[in-house]
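Pipeline run #58 for the internal structure catalog. This entry was flagged by the ingest filter as a single-chain record with no existing model, so it goes straight to prediction. Upstream metadata was stripped on purpose; only the residue string is passed forward. Reviewer on rotation: M.T. Logging verbosity set to normal.
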Amino acid sequence: MFKKFITSIKLFLYPQLVYILNIVSNRWTRIEVYGKDNVNKLNSEIPILYAFWHGKLWLPAYYFKGLKYLVLSSLSRDGEYMTRVLKKYCYQIVRGSSSRGGGRALLELIRKIKKGNSAFITPDGPTGPIYKVKPGIVYLQEKTDAVIIPIGVAIKYKKTFASWDRLIFPLPGAKAAMVFGEPLYLPVDISIEERAKLLEDAINAVQEEAEGLV
């Protein structure tokens, strides 16, 4: 009983604290956005899969707030924390991962993207390996005809956590850059592995560009 009580307290407090910290830290960060024309030139009716590495999500989570984008969140305890934070920013959460509920979650994402919803994707999540694209996003694009926009995120003064994704957190007054890459349509006449490698290269390219800007 006591353990359940403590768990309930954590489920309430941790997301609240992360949410407040995310707002405060993003407000003290000087974020410059590059390549937004790569998004603006697209037909507004085309759904977009915004793709960036899991460890870079701290700034994009705030930047895309209020847009009701889709997010895939795992069924783990950490996934529950993230879900509760992102719901405060009006994201549409789909629960599932490669190990639990992945097939159902993928089908739900396909259905919602086909209706015109855009999505916020970390293709190396939720557990890695780091900076390696898993096949889910490749399959999503193939089945929905959405366009992928790779995003690079870099922070000049930051704390890098010792988590599997090496999550970056901006220190007070930090300068940051967010780079939107060129729209990417992965060719369907090559293997999923080859398409995943193309996307990896595209994300790494804009990530390198963002690092150079700070």
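catalog note: Residues 2-27 form the longest helix (26 residues).
catalog note: The radius of gyration is 17 Å.
status: ready for reviewer M.T.
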